[in-house]
Amino acid sequence: xxxxxxxxxxxxxxxxxxxxxxxxxxxxxxxxxxxxxxxxxxxxxxxxxxxxxxxxxxxxxxxxxxxxxxxxxxxxxxxxxxxxxxxxxxxxxxxxxxxxxxxxxxxxxxxxxxxxxxxxxxxxxxxxxxxxxxxxxxxxxxxxxxxxxxxxxxxxxxxxxxxxxxxxxxxxxxxxxxxxxxxxxxxxxxxxxxxxxxxxxxxxxxxxxxxxxxxxxxxxxxxxxxxxxxxxxxxxxxxxxxxxxxxxxxxxxxxxxxxxxxxxxxxxxxxxxxxxxxxxxxxxxxxxxxxxxxxxxxxxxxxxxxxxxxxxxxxxxxxxxxxxxxxxxxxxxxxxxxxxxxxxxxxxxxxxxxxxxxxxxxxxxxxxxxxxxxxxxxxxxxxxxxxxxxxxxxxxxxxxxx
Length: 402
What we know:
Structural class: alpha+beta
CATH class of the domain at 10-27 and 131-239: Alpha Beta
Shape: globular
Helix content: 10-25%
Radius of gyration: 22 Å
CATH architecture of the domain at 10-27 and 131-239: 2-Layer Sandwich
Largest sheet: 6 strands, mixed
CATH topology of the domain at 10-27 and 131-239: Gyrase A, domain 2
Strand order of the largest sheet: 8-9-10-7-1-11
Number of helices: 9
Strand content: 25-35%
């Protein structure tokens, strides 16, 4: 996926996604499948989330944690069945993540007294290297995708083809009819995304060892001659996620940040906030101390509104204008917001005590100091879809934010 496509500038592509729909090729992301009788317990050891409460075909944002509670990567975990899970991790973290999971799985099984030869009997882990992944994002996404969903009226066991009954944080196996008139196999369709807009991600398995042909056919079917959908690149994806207050790994979060420091305490399950809860998750003591005593954190992730002028970019120092511009933090992401008419927005880590909304700070940009203040995130309200007519769905979705 390029930064931009030639037919649209970055701001144009960004606004198009907010108003219509854009297709992102995110096949560089790493897809995983984990299954087996100990798969759930293993996930609850390396993440702080209440994986055991996630319903079938429901998802939750989580973080992979090191032994100190630092964030190794962020991920979305989906339950496919009783002992089966699907999750996606970042491409830039691929080598570190694979080594981490391999090491953590070995340690986990050893703690159970399970020999390496018995690994697959307890936890099977597959990296889905031959799968593609595309994301359709924007308010017109459902309308566009619905026109392609195949409805097998003779198969009573088939999942409902009606996307209006699929809520944010839910997934479903669906078939699509592509332009040559053939139907795809059942594909995992998740109502999720990284833009703050309504949208879907479609995981596309390989045929004959290569998913490119299948993914291309589906992408062409979505784009077609539809005037409401266009390709979008990494530049728009980054500014959209920043407006939505979403973290970018290696920038806003890293092993140096814990979930509470990253304003992600909500991913720590309420039933896991005890030193006696089982299983224990990595870095539990540190994370629980920070949740119970926020002053114990040295810094926190917050949002900023920055005055007109050059944007505050990653690495810019945050200073205290009341104390001779003493350095109190660093910007981790920043750009002019296309949705907010160029208002400079940013995200950063700031010294604890300066994190409250409305706190006046300065940001060193080029040779000057720009006025800024701590702001609530998201900067642009998210538009995640939840079926209004299904009380059950609303209850299930309440704690499944992604």
